[in-house]
Specification:
- The chain is an alpha/beta fold.
- It has helices spanning about 10-15, 20-30, 45-65, 85-95, 105-115, 160-170, 190, 195-205, 210-220, 235-250, 250-255, 260-280; strands at about 75-80, 95-100, 125, 145-150, 175-185, 225-230, 280-290.
- The protein has a seven-stranded mixed sheet, with helices on both faces.
- Strand 4 (about 145-150), helix 6 (about 160-170) and strand 5 (about 175-185) form a beta-alpha-beta unit.
- Helix 8 (about 195-205) runs antiparallel to helix 12 and helix 10 runs antiparallel to helix 12 (about 260-280).
- The radius of gyration is 18 Å and the shape is globular.
- The two termini are about 25 Å apart.
Length: about 290
């Protein structure tokens, strides 16, 4: 494959997540394992516990679709962040996981936490762009499961991502694609253009996907949907809890390496996400597909 430049949105995400102040923020607030949307059910859960709940929900979605994850399974995690899902999967099932992620700062933490967990034999961390997956990712063969959490919103070339997923998934009907994304609701841009513009500025991208985009795009590439779990009702709860914790722990964050600019950007961004969730601008859910 010829090498191509990542989309502008992906490059923006790389700069954002390579910031040491940004990483200090996520590590402190999420507990260091993940940075993804959590299922706060019950609301008393910590952000880290809620994030683990999302991982477990994705696992149960794959299992319910008829594929059993075992020690023989190979899983590819696209946009793997700090590697929390990979460590959960490797520790729970003894399976091998390849983490592909564009942030060198996050990858370094992923490797450190993986070593501490004694899981280096099962988890490989590769720096790269999921819009053009490096050849080394496929060095061990294709994957039984392609997994991703809340990462594709950071791309402005999601059709290319789906092409790459198809290239990496095992042939036949046994493989599974399972992922979450934060998306725009169908009426969002028409009814709430100011809120959506604020969200796009935060993401430094020109678009957000809608649920029907993924359904159509996967079908066009020979996939069939195995179900969708609608989790949009968890978005407002999640963002409100993050916002409350940020306000409560602001001084601690400043003392531990989160600069004032990062905190102010997070405060504004969280306000926009909460407002968007309140008025129904944004969707969130778990997709599961296989080849038809």
């Amino acid at each position: 494959m010829s090498s191509s430049q990542p989309s502008s949105a992906t490059l923006s995400a790389q700069r954002y997540y390579n910031s040491h102040s940004t990483n200090a923020f996520y590590s402190l607030l999420w507990g260091g394992e993940g940075i993804h949307i959590g299922i706060l059910d019950p609301p008393s859960l910590t952000i880290a516990e809620a994030g683990r709940g999302t991982i477990m929900k994705m696992v149960s979605t794959v299992m319910a679709s008829g594929l059993q994850i075992t020690s023989k399974s190979r899983i590819l995690d696209l946009g793997s962040g700090y590697g929390g899902p990979a460590r959960y999967l490797a520790k729970t099932f003894g399976c091998k996981v390849v983490c592909l992620n564009l942030s060198s700062v996050q990858n370094a933490r992923n490797k450190e936490l993986t070593r501490e967990a004694g899981l280096e034999r099962l988890i490989e961390v590769i720096e790269g762009n999921f819009e053009e997956i490096p050849a080394e990712v496929l060095a061990g063969g294709k994957f039984d499961v392609v997994w991703s959490e809340d990462s594709f919103l950071h791309s402005s070339n999601r059709s290319r991502i789906i092409d790459e997923i198809s290239r990496c998934l095992v042939d036949g009907t046994e493989g599974r694609v399972v992922f979450t994304d934060i998306m725009a609701s169908p009426q969002a841009f028409a009814e709430h253009p100011e809120i959506m513009s604020a969200m796009l500025r935060r993401l430094e991208t020109e678009s957000m996907a809608m649920r029907d985009f993924y359904d159509k795009a996967f079908v066009e590439r020979g996939f069939v949907s195995l179900g969708y779990w609608d989790g949009k009702d968890h978005l407002e709860t999640h963002y409100r809890k993050v916002s409350e914790l940020l306000q409560q722990q602001r001084e601690e964050f400043l003392d531990k390496g989160v600069d004032e600019e990062t905190i102010e950007k997070q405060v504004v961004g969280l306000k926009n996400w909460i407002q968007g969730a309140e008025v129904g601008c944004i969707d969130f859910g778990i997709f599961c597909f296989r080849r038809s």
